[in-house]
Specification:
Involved in the biosynthesis of tetrahydrobiopterin, an essential cofactor of aromatic amino acid hydroxylases. Catalyzes the transformation of 7,8-dihydroneopterin triphosphate into 6-pyruvoyl tetrahydropterin. The chain is 29% helix and 28% strand. The chain contains four helices and five strands. Helix 2 packs across helix 4. The chain is elongated, with a radius of gyration of 18 Å.
Length: 147
């Protein structure tokens, strides 16, 4: 039997969580916030049922046949996403958002950073956050160059 070359695959898993937030920047006046964020700047906030899909990428292990064990990925997602975010007021219950506007873009970055601390290095490929059926953010860990 000839040796087989390594095969790469992507593995994705999704979770859904509910949370509320208010889009509001401390750097802007109340009038500027209302103009920028509209009804999403409601002082009492508003809620979403977020759907998050996490994709990991790696070689298919020749023994297990897996990129990673789905049970492990499920546990990492529970710790990185569900525990800190589900049924929370993002702005009041999650310290990260006390200084960062709780946009879906920043929710995706928060999730990415949390998962990076838990997953094997280099395996995280993509975090996809559906705020609604129409509004989706995809984050792959990219950063801009500081000028």
């Amino acid at each position: 039997m000839s040796p087989r070359s390594a095969r790469l695959a992507r593995l994705s898993r999704s979770v859904t969580f509910s949370a509320c937030h208010r889009l509001h920047s401390k750097s802007l006046s109340d009038e500027e916030n209302l103009k920028l964020f509209g009804k999403c700047n409601n002082p009492n906030g508003h809620g979403h049922n977020y759907k998050v899909t996490v994709t990991v990428r790696g070689e298919i292990d020749p023994v297990s046949g897996m990129v990673m064990n789905l049970t492990d990925l499920k546990e990492y997602m529970q710790e990185a996403i569900m525990e800190p975010l589900d049924h929370k007021n993002l702005d009041k219950d999650v310290p990260y958002f006390s200084e960062v506007v709780s946009t879906t873009e920043n929710v995706a970055v928060f999730i990415w950073d949390n998962l990076q601390k838990l997953l094997p290095q280099g395996i995280l490929y993509k975090v996809e956050v559906h705020e609604t059926d129409q509004n989706i953010v995809i984050y792959k860990g990219e950063q801009t160059i500081v000028k």
